[in-house]
Amino acid sequence: MTSPVESCAVAHDAQPFPLGEVPEEVTQESLMNREFSPPRDASSAITWSDGQLIRGGRPHRILAGALHYFRVHPDQWEDRLRRLAAMGANTVDTYVAWNFHERVEGEPRFDGWRDLESFVRLAGEVGLDVYLRPSPYICAEWSNGGLPFWLTGRVSALRTSDREYLAAVDRWYDALIPRIVPLQAAFGGPIVAVQVENEYGSFGSDSAYLEHQRDALRSRGVVELLTTADGTTSDMLRHGSVAGALPTFTFGTGVEIAQELRRTDDALMCSELWGGWFDHWGERHHVRSAESMIGTVDELLAAGGSVSIYMAHGGTNFGLWNGANHDGALQPTITSYDSDAPIGEDGSLNAKFEALRAAFAPFHDGELPERPAPAPVQAAQAVVLHPVVSLRDLVEALPEIGEQTPMPQTFEQLGVEDGIVVYQAQIDVPADATVDVDTLHDRATVFLDDERVGTLERDGVLSLPLPGGARRARLTIVVESLGRINYGPRMGEGKGIMRGVRINGRRYVHGWTHRALPFDAPSVSGSPSASSAPSASSAAGADGVARAAIEVDAPADAWLAFPGGVKGLVWLNGFLLGRYWKVGPQETLYAPAPLWHPGANEIVVLDLDGLGSTVEVRERPEFGPTEEFVGS
Hints:
Blueprint: H1 28-32, E1 46-49, E2 52-55, E3 58-60, E4 63-67, H2 77-86, E5 91-95, H3 98-101, H4 116-126, E6 129-133, H5 149-152, H6 163-180, E7 191-198, H7 207-219, E8 225-230, H8 234-240, E9 246-251, H9 255-261, E10 269-274, E11 285-287, H10 290-302, E12 306-313, E13 323-326, E14 330-332, H11 351-360, E15 381-384, E16 386-389, H12 391-396, H13 411-414, E17 420-429, E18 434-437, E19 440-441, E20 443-448, E21 451-457, E22 463-465, E23 471-480, E24 484-485, E25 496-497, E26 501-503, E27 507-508, E28 513-516, H14 522-525, E29 544-552, E30 558-561, E31 567-572, E32 575-581, E33 589-591, E34 599-607, E35 614-618, E36 626-628
C-alpha cells in the first residue's frame, strides 16, 4: 500500500528545463508559425495504468482546486493561488473561456486580464501544477458556455463535426495552443493535464467531433495527459469519452458509482467535486456544509482517487459574463460566483478550507504553506445616489446602429454581444390596442412616446395594452439580455426580439431603428455628472442613471449594496461590476481593492425599474436566504 506522501509527487524541479523555458529550437515564433513538432522523446509528466496515475515512476494524486483567471482580478491572481496552495492543493484547475479572449472574430487577445500565460506561469511559481481545460465549450455558468456569440449566431450544429464549427475552433486553437505548449511539464512548465471536451456525454454523440478535438490538441504539440469529464451514468461516459484520454467524473456525491463505471485500468478521478453550488436570480443561496463536502472527498481519497474541488475559489461574474440555464423558464445566474467555496469571493477562508487542508496535508512532504492573512476591508458607510437622467432620456441620447430595417434585428445581427438594445419604430395605434412581442430574449421595458407602458418577460407576459386612443406614436422597446444559456440543448440561442412585433397580435410593425448601450465605452461613465441638474423624470424610485462619490483613504475590498433599488447595473470607476436585482438572493456586489483608488471613487448606477436613494459600503457579503445543496 502506498503512503499518502509517496503518492503525491511534485516534480517541477525535476524537469529538464527551468519553469516555462524550452530548448532553443522551441521558440514562441516557431510555435505560432506551426513550425514546431514536439521532440519524439517528449512525454507526459503523468500517465495512468493499473487503476492509478503515475508520475516519475511513482503513484500520484492530483489534488486540485478550480480557480478561473477570468473571474478574478489579475492583481489578485497570486493571492488566490497562494490561498489554494495553503489549502493543500498541488494543482490549480482552470477553464479557458474562448469568448473572453475573442470577443471580436479574428482578434483574439492574450493581454492584461486575458494573459493566460502569465496566470499559468504564476501558478508554477507558487508551486502548483496546472490542469488546463481549454475545450471550446466550458459550461461553467459562463455566458454561452464560453462560445463566442458571433459563432453561435451563425452556426447551429454546435459541438459537432460541422465544418464551419470546426473551422472556427481550429482557428482559435491555432491562436491558443502554441501559447500553452511551452508551458507544459515536458518543457519545464506547470501544465500536467489538458481536457479534450467538457461533459460532452450530457450533450451529444458525435464521436468524430471528439476525435477531432483530441487530435487538434496532439497535432499542435500538447503531449501531457488528456482527459474528458462526464457525469456518473454509463450513457454519459460512453458518449463523452474518446480513446487516448482519461475519462474523469463530475459529481457532488457519487464515488461508489464512479468506481463501478470506470474501466479497471483507468485511474479514478473526479475532475469536478461539487463542494458548493451556484445561484440563479430569484432562488435561495446554495450552500453545502463542510461535513457533507469533506465526507465525499475523504471517500474519494480512501478509494485511491484524485480530485478537483469545484469551485475552490469561485470569484465573480464581473460585467455581463454570467450565463443562464433554461428549465421551463430562463434562469440567469447571479453576478457572484462565490459558490459557497472554501476560499470565498473576497479570499476569506472558511470551515471547508480547514477541512480540505487537513485532508490534503498527509499527501505532502513537509508542512503546508501558512494561511495568508485576510485582506483589508473598507469601513462601512453610506452615500447619496444623485439621479442624473431617466432611462427614456438616456436611450434617446444613444447613437443609432446601422440603417432602418423592416424587422427588428437580433443582438447577433447587430453585432451586439450582450447588455441592452433599444428598438424604435413609428406606429399607428388603434383604439384599445395591444403590442405583442414574438419570442423575446430576455426582458423588455416598453415606452409609447414618453410614457412607460410596462415590462415584458421572456417565458412570461409578452403582450401589453397601449394607453390612449387612436393616434400615431413612437414605440420604444428596451431589451436586456439577462445571460446567455450555458448548458443544454438551448445553448447558443440568440438575444433580442427574435421574430417581430405585432399590434393586436396581427399586424406587424415595420421600419425599425436600433441603438445599443455601450457597456465598455467611456461614454457610459461620461454621462452628466452628479452635480448636473437631473431631468424632470429622474428621481429616486424612478428608472434611469444615478451617480455617487465614495471617498476612501486607501484601496481595499468592499461590498456594495443598493437599498431601494429594483434592478440595476453598477460601474465602479468605469468598470462594470455586474447586476443587482431585488428578487435576490444576492444583496451585495463584490468590489475588489484593485478597482479603487485613494480619494473620490465614482459609482454609476443604471436601474431599469427604480433607483434607490443611497449606496452602502458594507464590510461583509450578504448572499440572502440559504438552501442546502448536497449534489448528485
